[in-house]
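A note from the maintainers: we've had questions about how concatenated examples are separated. There is no special marker in the raw files; a new sequence line simply starts the next protein. For clarity in this README we add a label.
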Amino acid sequence: MDIVELFIDEEDEISGIEAVSIVENPAIEEDFIALKNHEVKFAEVNKEKRILMGAALIPNKPIYRRSEENEYYIYFSRDTVRKASELFFIKGNYNKSTLEHGKALSGLVAVESWLVEDSKKDKSAAYGMNMPVGTWMLSMKVLNDDVWENYVKTGKVKGFSIEGYFADRLERPNEPNKLSDWEEEEAEYLLSEIKGIIKKDKRFKDGKTIEMESYRDYPDSVKNNAKRGIELNEKVNNKCATPVGKIRAQQLAQGKPISVETIKRMYSYLSRAEEYYDPSDNEACGTISYLLWGGKTAKSWAESKLKSLDLI
């Protein structure tokens, strides 16, 4: 399945966030916090603040999308999230909003914006939100009575969803991280498997479109290892592996076809990461990540497949 990075093209004047929509099912799967119980006292008058706080963009979070018959994931790098938050205000779009990406709203204004620098000490943590570093947080003032009474208070809307224009890139940016060398290399591969791919595993060669072969004849033990890795990762709150490792596990567990490029990567990754695999430690990220990629049987199958294709 394609994994596409969206980014801001600074040479394109329309690139960036145009509006923030309040929706029932936010794509980033993080609800905002309605601060409706906070009162502002002025003389004898008590008024609700009518502030909504929530995540507008979370860096490096795969977001599922479907267009016609194509399924894919998109994600935003930390640098793109930062640029998006800045341009949102630079372009004066802080008072532009919609309802469910449709009806334009009035009386919904961004009054606070920040990037999470420390997940535990950030303001959002005080409201029970555990946001990763680099997340763009927003607080929006609801001046529209209809929106507040009929959508926020009733729970018809639960989160923010951005609207804007982005370009897509086929190379993952090199962002600083604390991953081990082999995990970092896995992260950098997030998009390499779709480099040059247009749609439905098609590529251009010598000006012509060619179909790319894919294979699904890997053993059931590969599927079972991937499923095992998913289960073990859930037990440790999915803290192990990068997005590509988690997505690869879902692909293998469901028996979906994989390309030759993916098989090459599978063999390369499993060959080098094997030293971190310890079957006696089910909580070690080295073990879990190895299983997510299909484990030892996946390595053997990948090697055999590549040899049969005269690729090694």
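[label: protein 2]
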Amino acid sequence: MNTMRLRLPATSANLGPGFDAMALALDLYLEIETVPASQFGIDASGRNQDICGGLTKNLLIETYKSVLAEERRPLVPLALRVRNGIPVGMGCGSSAAVRLAGVALASAYGELDWDAARIVERAVRLEGHPDNVAACWYGGLTIAANAQELAVVSIPPPRNWRAVLVLPENPVATAEARGLLPSNYERQDVVMNLQCVALLTAAFALGRADLMQLATRDRLHQPYREEICPLLPALLPLAGSHGVMSITLSGAGPAVMLLVQDGHPERLREAILQLAAPICPVEILAVGLNHEGTGKEAALITK
């Protein structure tokens, strides 16, 4: 009996200026174990069990089936055990992780034997943009470009950098967040973002915490999303205190990600709760940064 095990990290895309080009892998995971079965079944635990455990309109199963059908391979029903630690609808890369899982499962059970580049490329095609997908598979801070062909570079973040995710009660659909963006931008705004994303890449590569607040400025998406992501402007005053290096939307939001080093976690938590209180109740998750991604841990074994 062939068993597939996957452990896919959450990801936070954009980091301010790196719109649709950068993402950071986090130590929150979607864990999946599968075996062939006579029919599909899911044993779901963890976050969002209603979404992860349903057999209809299930993104994981739909992705798996669609890849097998497109490649003209027989459908192998699976019994899935899913433990989800990635918040859904918060901008933490949940759909990218599920897309990657579906493609990886199709490659294994469809005997496609795709390498990492092929798995990531297909998941990017299904997801529509490469940032979260690339970071989920390769780990670290990932820069991804999907021009004539997909190119990915992963930079290991400094070991003493961590993330704090601030999650509001209600999710926001990515389509809704994208609908707020303008069709055109002023040249000076684009130039500023290019400067900041170059600086941000260097800051990660060199471990320059002192550059992070400046390097995460953005004029392309965050200002337009503040109306549905009010936690961002509320928490921005924390930058530079309590060990906080930068404050950005996580992906399209509504979650906010604070990158931190050193500092006093309890004091930061108290400060976050105080600033967020007038807006909405929040959940605060302090997590490490993932360096390995999915690719090094994907395993198809025989029991």
